[in-house]
Amino acid sequence: MFTPGDAARTTHWHPPYLLYLGNAIDDLAIKTARGLAHWRPESCVGQYRGPDCVPTLGLRDMDWNQAKAEGADTMVIGTANAGGVMGPQIVADAIAALDAGLNVVAGLHQKLHDNPGIVAAAQRNGRALFDARTPMGGIAVGNGRRRSGRRLLTVGTDCSVGKMYTTLAIERSLRERGCKADFRATGQTGIFIAGAGIPVDAVVADFISGAAETISPARLDGGWDLIEGQGSLFHPSYAGVSLGLLHGAQPDALVLCHEPGRQHMRGLPGYALPELARCLEANLEAARLTNPDVKAIGVALNTSGLPADQAQATCREVADLLGLPCQDPVTMGVEAIVDHLLSCFAN
Amino acid sequence: MFTPGDAARTTHWHPPYLLYLGNAIDDLAIKTARGLAHWRPESCVGQYRGPDCVPTLGLRDMDWNQAKAEGADTMVIGTANAGGVMGPQIVADAIAALDAGLNVVAGLHQKLHDNPGIVAAAQRNGRALFDARTPMGGIAVGNGRRRSGRRLLTVGTDCSVGKMYTTLAIERSLRERGCKADFRATGQTGIFIAGAGIPVDAVVADFISGAAETISPARLDGGWDLIEGQGSLFHPSYAGVSLGLLHGAQPDALVLCHEPGRQHMRGLPGYALPELARCLEANLEAARLTNPDVKAIGVALNTSGLPADQAQATCREVADLLGLPCQDPVTMGVEAIVDHLLSCFAN
């Protein structure tokens, strides 16, 4: 029997989770853990905070033995730091978690599997290690063949404008309406949330579109694959990833994501953000290569930098400009966007 | 002192070369060796052909000891086969070459460095091994900052339409005219010919544009970096590589490469080739992100599938259509294209 979830399951660890915050110094450092706690609260039994940890997720504090006793299966190292380094404290804590009987998953650049002490602890306890940033092997080169099923991809004017959040919000809305829908993760945090996926920015360049094809295989159940976008066609550092993902995703529907007021492309002060209409048209034009029938179905704005009344006004302006529903998924939800999606693909 | 050649020298082996053809069954299997023999004949002392080898490069046949006696420094495994596999005969011959005192370089998917017997032979003989398909470490993410120097990039309607050949022909023409010009290799054969370069299709996806920036660093000597293009913005499997390369190359000049009469995109029977004008405009539009002043300066056609009179007529038609000089670099040279390049960038 066809199970799209399994076909896309390229990594696999299991809830319930203990979220490891270590000695994080600020909220940014626990962004990944926060995403998991927000989108999969039922999967998170608690948090582990080191003695110098500043932020909190508001979950119950517990150590490894308590987490194990509460039924936790896996400790998620959901912290980020400069360079993705796995410092000595993280190593020691990972070993302690393994010794307490937990599996461990991490998304740092430095790999659990490259640390002999961690590998030895996993072996002596019969526990599993997962490096979420290591792409699976055996991804094929993209073939561009039209495949069945419906796919939505979020695209952006820039990096970090809310593509993952928007995609997950659409999954939740579709599921609440009784539609089959599966979030397909392409980045670290998304992979933690989905428990599966491929970090497309970490695959070998020749395999970007192949990776997108792999995580959203043909489906015959009438449901939607909702594919997390990455980067932007207009980001000079990462546009190749965005284009390969766009071609491989073969999307039927695009949602454009944007943060009003951003002064320049992320990390590149010399580069202005593209105009919304131009950015959307460039994405549609490129997407037509593998799906000539692609449609734009909505715009998601991150208005966190605007006063509430201005946020509403900005959404109305953008909706008028592009002729599409426009909402901030965090403060306004995505119902108008999902309404339009379903009306565009009613048959 | 600034030496652009050194800055881009990411791998380094040295002529003179013995070209290893092994037991190649046809001309396609020795395409890489043929490229090297064609573009760097002064660097090739001879060829080694196994007992079952069918094709020849027309070089003198010799074994490893003869090659060493004739001054060869390095054996180049310039064969290709399905899957890039390094079979037992290649392994045995690589070891024999090392034992005869040659260094060995190969561009197969399977690596010399992953074969314990080859590594041991290199160690006991104090010889070096180079895997041309392994990207250097330490490539940074592309930063998109405008850099000095002039750069030309070949772009294509498809894969394998003559981008490398065209780029090398332009290098030769510019050098014959007394201009400083350096071919910058981005693929396996080009890297063999240049003795340096980065296989951009083999880098991690986030680093495509960074790799292009690395191989064509800022230069202040008034010379040209001539960057070998890869793939096509219109190839569903590889367009991400092409876009990242286009952004990172920051080209001042584009040359469009095309093979008239090709029935579909390489490897993808369902995909027609893009129209020339549309393909060129899409490349210019994308290139403007990192260099708003980019210009198209010529078209290179591979007319090997056409009768000679039709080839000339086709070039005239394309020249009229696009308003650019159009030549087949193999049969007509690239002088009209280089004339136009120099007139466009006279100051």
Automatic annotation (TrEMBL), chains A, B:
It holds the Pfam family DUF1611. It comes from the Bacteria. Residues 141-338 form the D-glutamate N-acetyltransferase-like C-terminal domain. Residues 64-135 form the D-glutamate N-acetyltransferase-like N-terminal domain. Signal peptide: none annotated. This is Putative NAD-dependent epimerase/dehydratase family protein. It comes from Luteimonas cucumeris. The lineage of its organism: Bacteria, Pseudomonadati, Pseudomonadota, Gammaproteobacteria, Lysobacterales.
